[in-house]
Model the fold of this input.
Amino acid sequence: MIWVDQPYVTLMASLPAIRFLTEKEPPINRQRLMERLKDLPPADQETLRELTEVVSWRFVDTTQDDAAFLARAAALLERIASPTLAAAVRQRLELRTVIAALRRRHAGEDAPPKGVRWGFGPHLERIRASWSLPDLGVAAFYPWLPAAKEALDAGDTVALERLLLETAWQQQARHAEGHEFDFEAVALYMLRWSMADRWARYDADEARRRFAELLDAALADAPEIPEAA
Done:
């Protein structure tokens, strides 16, 4: 039986479905989404804020200080009452950890030394000990890892971005099963929205088109250079 709470029913019924990677932009923009979320209790709004900050897609860039980020994530996990959301956060943090390891090794960095807090999940020591292996010794746990490494080695940032977003999307979809009109449904909708928004803003074809337009405009404004005699 699915637990139903009227405020969540009203909110979820007002939110359009998101079809990942099939639309140029999410069916609801950030401003309108935030306006609708204002009807949630303050405690729920705060949990959503913390959740989206920790699980933000900025993790792909892995630019945050590891220890500080992991401390925030651990504190959030201690406060989350929902097993579903806690599992979703843990899975996203594991994804972040593996990608960070791939990026660091690709950049020529050594394995993290023992005793240093650098990642999240049950396979940290296995990754550290298997640093020289192509799959870091954990492909059996993360089937998407070989494809991610291939895209990273090829410098194909678009393929890597798409792969990671699709992987995270599938993970969130599994967590959303059985949650339609509760806080978990709202939180997971927010996480899926952020992924769809990320992909829409990452549209490589659009980026190349805009770059070409800017280049054409710059060339048009440039002074003519006489041809060599």
